[in-house]
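Onboarding guide, step 5: your first structure request.
Type a short instruction followed by the sequence, for example:

Predict the 3D structure of this protein.
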Amino acid sequence: MYKNIIFDCFGTLIDTGSGSVEAVKKILDSVGCDADAKAFYSEWKSLKKKLMLEAPFFSEKDLFKISLGKMFDAYGINADADVEVKPMIDILFGVRNVFPDVVETLNMLDDMGIKYAIGSTTDTDSLMHFLDSNNLTFARIHTSEDMRVYKPAAGFYQTILDQEGWDVTETLFVGDNLIDDVAGPKGVGMKAVLLDRKNQYEPDSDIKPDYIISTLKELIQIIER
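The system replies with structure tokens like these:
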């Protein structure tokens, strides 16, 4: 029986929207670069992810600055990344809305006596900003900044289990990313639920979730089985 749930936050509980690409457009306009914003952001995001898995540990805000500097170098852009990164940093404290099915699902979990936590690859102050602005209260919050480790490193998931004192066999990880929220937790023996809101999962994927749901409320059915 599942007694505990660890939720990813962004893309799972809170909608990230398209603000990141818009921020990249502002940055490229500011430095006079005509590169495609979506392509630039995709490359920047991949580079930032690579740096997340390398030592030493940096906060997400610092990683944005460091990786943007490397992107400027790669594109031959002569600009100060610490200054130009501002539109992206602003997003970390901007407006993002909770998905409509979140509050009802959390209330149902409370009624069932299920314990739950957030496990998010982000800085603590940014996460708290979005929780507060959406009137979401979590008793258990774990961020990469606090734990000094990012997904999908095994230490991210194991640290949460250890700090909460939860049995891995009784705990579900729920998220929207195949690598961070499925492969990562399964690597430490946890069952993983893929929240596929847009029905984009490919059945022939090498990464196999234990469960796939299209709305968060479907999680209740998994627990009741």
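Each response can be followed by summary notes, for example: The mean pLDDT is 97.
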